[in-house]
Amino acid sequence: MLEISVGTGRLALPLAARGLDVTGIEISPAMPAQRRAKPGAEALTLSHGDMATGRVPGRFSLVYLAFNTIMNLTSQTAQTACFVSSAAHLRPGGRFLSEVIVPPLARARRPPPGL
Hints:
By secondary structure, the chain is an alpha/beta fold. It has 3 helices and 5 strands.
């Protein structure tokens, strides 16, 4: 499986501890040191790269982004690039998962009348 923006390994490390092969892409230079300090970090295969365009060798049965990660890409163009890159990493029949919150509609601003 491939985690886009693996960060400190909050998801990847427990998955690897259960015997799953986990590869991660991360662009932040601060995250590797935090991740390496955690038990089991050596089990991960990691690559430095941008979440929208980063590439790693291989194809995966699951590519995922969690914890609203996709919202760090603030344009539709960048989000689309991330989806295209994620799809290129999938095996035939593989799955793509993106977790994101949907704010309550009560918080959304209503457009002025007539728009």
